[in-house]
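Table S2 (text version). Query chain:
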Amino acid sequence: MSEVLTYVWNALIGIVVESWNLFAQMAPYLIIGFIFAGILHVFVSVKRISRHLGKSNFISVLKATLFGIPLPLCSCSVIPTVSTLHSSGASKGATLAFLISTPTSGVDSILATYSLLGPVFTIYRIFASFVAGVFSGVSANIFDRKKSADENVKKIACPVCGEHTDDHHHSFGARVRAMIAYSFGELVRDIGKWVLIGTLIGGAIAYFVPAGLITTYLSSPILQMLLMLVLSIPLYICATGSLPIAAALIMKGISPGAAMVLLIAGPATNAVTLTVVSKTLGRRSLIIYLSSIIITALGMGFLFDLLPWSAPTSSGMMVGMFEFPQIVKIIAAVLILGLIAYQIVSGIVVKSRHKRHEHECKEESSSCCSGHGHEPARKD
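Corresponding structure-token output:
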């Protein structure tokens, strides 16, 4: 019994150590990415973007892809934005291009990719997101020209005050406060727990998987890519949270192309997104959306493996990349962990208060109802 407990304890310590190494490497870049994400959220107007995406042509698809790549939205949080863009007049091609290019990249995940996998992998990942977005958008323009049944124009909320009115004039200070609130509040709340989950999975892979296991039993890069595709499509993995998993798999022998398949197909798809695409844009758009992801993920993964300079070094890092001092990594990691913990705890508190309020309302309602129509008859 003591041997089992010792093994479990050592395993937990090993996973925590490996996870910490991955997280600390990403942390400074995540903070920089969060700041850039807040700037984009506050100072780039979704309403202005929608004006460029109305036509069913290549230019609209190209603009949607370029607009989507830097935005820090995961495959779930991008859904409301996509719905607003489409109902504000964006074509199906532009909508699908935005829907694929946005969750597969983002300034936060771009910088985090650089931190774990180096500049070559980072540039190629951006290029792969671009290709996936353009390919899906052009395919939709060719094969799905039918208008959606419901395309009522919706008002777009202001990122500073949340109002839906048309005219907004906010001071620079108000915009900066909104930027900070988004960068270290809403964005951390949206992706924080997924980054933690991805980091823990990456740490577990790094600890448990022997160095030669993948190359011995799954040596074919094509089979590795197909396995990554099958595993990633139904699951939710955000663009940043998938990075520690990809880095750990590469260190254990998986091909860079197979890791690229995971980084494209994982963030772009999950069961919720597939359902919403089918409901909002139609089944034909869903088929185009899923087919585009499968084709581009496998194609870009296969092409990446052909590049002579695609493979990271044995440590999982690329040679020649900038390294933050260890103290900076530790401070950044502790800061982000604190922000994530705060958001998780505050979310639990809010849900608890909401449930308590609902329970009190039900009790008050039932007591009010029981007090009516059941009074004893008075004697005259």
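Notes on Table S2: The chain has one domain: 2-157+174-351. The CA atoms of residues 211 and 350 lie 44 Å apart.
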